[in-house]
Design brief:
240 residues; alpha/beta; six-stranded parallel sheet; two-stranded antiparallel ribbon; globular; disordered C terminus
C-alpha cells in the first residue's frame, strides 16, 4: 500500500483530516447480508419473494426509501409505517446471533482512537440498531453517533454528515467520510467531505475528492492524511 507524508492543512496546524466520519453497515460491520436476509424474510411472510436485483437498489438506503421501493416493487399490502418496525425487528434478531467486523475495521478504529482523532459513526439505520452495533464496536471508538431517525432527512441527503461535522466542531470539508454504497457517498459528497469508498454491493468508481479501496486494510491515518493536496504534493512515503 502506498501512503503519503502527513500534512497540516487544518486551522492552527492541525493535521488534516480533523475528523473521520464512518458509515456502519457494510463499512465497519458485515451486516449488508443481514439486512437483505431480514427484508427477504419479512416479505416472504407477506407472501412475496424479493428478486435479487432489488438488493442493489436498497443497499445502504434509509428505511423510508427501502420500504417504499419494496412495497411498490411487490405490491405488498402493508404501509411503510408498518413495514419499518418489522424489518428492524428481523434485523435485530439476526444481529443477536452475532456479526463480523469488516477486514481492517478494528485496527482503523483503534488507531483513530489512539491518535485522538475525533470520529463519528454516521448511519442510515435507526437509533436502536446503531446503539446495539456501536456498543459491540465499543462506545469509546466514537466521539458521537448519528442515526437515520435522528434527523428529518436521511442519506442520500447531506444532513447526517453535516450534523456529525457540526457535532464535532469541524467543517465538513476538513473531514473524511468512509462509505460503502452510492447512497452514502452521495450524502457525504453533498456535505462537502473527502470520501473514501470501500464498495460492498455495487462497484463505485473513483472521482474528484473520492478514492476507492478494496478494503479497510488499505486505510490508515497516514493514508487519510495523504488525501489532502499538501500531502499529495510531497513524495510518497512508500509501502508501510
Amino acid at each position: 500500500m502506498t501512503t503519503f507524508l502527513p500534512t497540516t492543512d487544518g486551522p492552527g496546524g492541525t493535521p488534516a483530516p480533523r475528523a473521520v466520519l464512518l458509515d456502519m453497515d457494510g463499512t465497519l460491520v458485515d451486516t449488508e447480508n443481514l439486512w437483505w436476509d431480514a427484508e427477504v424474510a419479512v416479505f416472504a411472510g407477506l407472501g412475496h419473494a424479493l428478486a435479487d436485483h432489488h438488493r442493489a437498489v436498497v443497499s445502504g438506503g434509509p428505511m423510508g426509501r427501502v420500504g417504499r421501493h419494496l412495497i411498490e416493487a411487490t405490491g405488498a399490502a402493508i404501509t411503510l409505517e408498518e413495514l419499518g418496525p418489522l424489518i428492524n425487528a428481523a434485523f435485530l434478531t439476526r444481529l443477536g446471533d452475532g456479526f463480523e467486523l469488516m477486514p481492517g475495521a478494528r485496527r482503523l478504529l483503534d488507531e483513530l482512537t489512539g491518535q485522538g482523532v475525533p470520529t463519528a459513526l454516521v448511519s442510515a439505520s435507526d437509533r436502536a440498531v446503531v446503539d446495539v452495533v456501536s456498543t459491540v464496536l465499543g462506545r469509546e471508538s466514537f466521539t458521537l453517533t448519528v442515526a437515520g431517525n435522528d434527523l428529518r432527512r436521511n442519506k442520500p441527503h447531506p444532513d447526517p454528515y453535516l450534523a456529525a461535522a457540526r457535532g464535532l466542531g469541524v467543517a465538513p470539508e476538513e473531514c473524511v467520510a468512509v462509505e460503502d454504497t452510492l447512497t452514502g457517498v452521495a450524502a457525504a459528497e453533498a456535505a462537502g467531505c473527502q470520501v473514501v469508498v470501500v464498495p460492498s454491493v455495487v462497484p463505485i468508481p473513483p472521482a474528484h475528492r473520492r478514492s476507492v479501496v478494496a478494503s479497510l486494510t488499505e486505510v490508515d491515518l497516514r493514508y487519510l492524511r495523504g488525501l489532502w493536496p499538501a500531502a499529495r504534493a510531497g513524495e510518497p512515503a512508500g509501502p508501510l
